[in-house]
Structures are given as C-alpha cells and as structure tokens.
Amino acid sequence: MLFYRFIPVLMFTMVFWLLANTVHADFQAGQKAYDRGDYATALKEWQTLAEQGDVRAQYRLGAMYHDGQGVSLDYAEAMRWYRLAADKGHPDAQFVLGIMYDIGQGVPRNHVEAVRWYRLAAEQGEAAAQYHLGSKYATGQGMPQDQAEAVRWYQLSAEQGLPQAQFNLGFMYATGRGVPQDGAEAVRWYRLSADQGLPQAQLNLGLMYATGQGVPQDDVEAMRWYRLSGEQGFSWAQSKLGEMYFKGQGVPEDYIQAHMWASLAAAQHRKGAVELGDIVANKMTLEQYVESRRLTREWLAQGHQ
User: Which one of 45, 90, 183, 265 counts the least CB within 10 Å of its CB?
Assistant: First the structure.
C-alpha cells in the first residue's frame, strides 16, 4: 500500500522533469538559431517561452528588441520584457533597466530608478552594476553623495576584474576620496586596469611613474604606458608623448615624434596640444616638419586617432 501512495508524486516529478527539459530544449533551439544569425527563428522560439514566463527568454527577447535583431528596434518593448525578467530577479535584466533609466532610453531619464535597479543587480554580484552603483555614490546622482560607499562598490566590482572599476578605485586611492590617500594602492589598481588595455588607466599609471607617486620615479616606464594609451587614441596620453619626446625624457629627444604626437592630440582638441605643437615646430627644420606631417597623415589614414 505504501508504494501506491508515492505514485502521484512520482508522476508529478516525471511531468515536471519532462516540461523542464522541453523548455530547456526550446531555449537552446533559440540560442542555436541566434548564434547562426537566424534572428527570426530565435525570436519565435524565445517569444513563446517568454510568454510562458521563462525568465531567460524574457531577458533575451528584451535584448533583441533593444538591439533591433529580428525585429524593429523598440526600446519600449525591450523595457517591457526586461522588466518582466528583472521583477523575477534576473540580474542582467535589472542592470540593463538601470542603464535605460540612467540615459533615458525608452523612458524619461530617472537617476533614482536607475539606482534602484543597479542596486538590485549589484547585490546579486553583477560587476557592471556594482561599478555603476559606485559611480552614482561618487557623483551623488539619484542618492546622497558618499565617497566611502563609492569605494565599497568599486572594490567589489574591481575584485571581479572589471577594468573601469579598477581604474576608478585607483583614482580614489590616488586622490584620497573615500579612503586614505595611498599611492601604492592606486598604482596597484591602475596597473590591473592598464594591463587589460584601458587607456585612461595606462595614462594614469604613466603619470604615477613620471611623478614617482606610489612607485620609484621612472621616465622610461612612464613613456611606455603613455605610448600604450596614446596608440589607442587617448589624446591626453598623446600630448604627454609629445612633451616627453620634446624634452627627451625617457626617450632620446625627437622633434619629429614630438610634433606628430602633439598634432594628433590637437586634432582631438586636447587642451595645450596646439601650443605644444607650435613650440616644437619653432625648433624644427623644414625637413623635420614635413616628415612629421607625413607621419601624422599616415597615422590618421590607418584609422587611428
């Protein structure tokens, strides 16, 4: 008799297992279609699941409307599906909702709502949401300004490897905002970000070497980091490269390179770059000036900034 009491439970378990596997198979069918660029099929598969309440499908459907993949771009519809997923605790959907409120995409701009959704995602460990929440605390948008809280959220994000958070955390240590000023700690976080290729971090790490903050002063290392940043088109780094070549700091003096980098920075309206270029030009021969202009044109023609 005891065995028969378990039959309904076993049947329910089997039905639930079959349904779960069917949903998973349908979602994967949509994912495979999406991966091969068949957005219409992906949309069809996910639409059905989303309407049945599948949180993953709701999020992905929102993303397709957000990006205009397989459908006309529609921020309002994207937000509708994101919200359904976000209300069920989907951290990526919560984060994207925060972004949309933050920039006023599909809804009126609302920093308080942005903070609310960032926080929900951040508390689930979403690194980008933690970074954005930290930025809101740092600037006081949508909440009272609190630099110590900004540091706390930047730290959580930075420890997950987000380069923007690592850079901001480095800046907080460099300037003593929300934490005691600590050059060595600033360098540590700048380096982690710079090693991932963030040009702002590469520039700031170069500045730390140039001034000897948190590291022994080293113009050669400063120049190395300026170059990595400048070659990505970061105008401040390009201007610093021009200065270093002009003064012969960390590299042999080279007016051609100095003028080229100053010209590239000036093309992006970097403050002081035009004046630097003029100072260098007054020291150059005609041949050097012509060569600098040629190198500048060649650099820009390759699609660089």
Answer: 183
| CA 285 distance to own-chain centroid | 43
Q: What is the pTM of this model?
A: 0.89
Nearest alpha-carbon partner for 105 in 129, 73, 76, 85: 76
The C-alpha angle 85, 156, 174, rounded to 5 degrees, equals 135
Question: Is the Cβ–Cβ distance between 189 and 173 less than 8 Å?
Answer: yes
Q: Is the pLDDT of residue 2 over 50?
A: no
Burial of 252 (0-12, 13-18, 19+ CB in 10 A): exposed
Rounded Cα distance between 228 and 207, Å, is 13
Amino acid 250 reads G
Tokens of 109: 């701009």
Structure tokens at 74: 């529609």
Handedness of CA 247, 248, 250, 256 (dihedral sign): positive
CA angle 13, 19, 23 (to 5 degrees): 145
If you search the block for the tokens 């955390």, which residue do you land on?
Answer: 169
Summarize pLDDT for 221-233 with one digit per residue, the tens: 999 999 999 999 9
Q: How many CA atoms lie within 13 A of 28 on its CB side?
A: 6
Distance separating alpha carbons of residues 113 and 287, to the nearest angstrom: 59
Residue whose C-alpha is closest to residue 40's, from 52, 29, 51, 24: 29
Encoding tokens for residue 199? Answer: 């040009």
Q: Across residues 57-76, what is the average pLDDT?
A: 96
DSSP 17: H
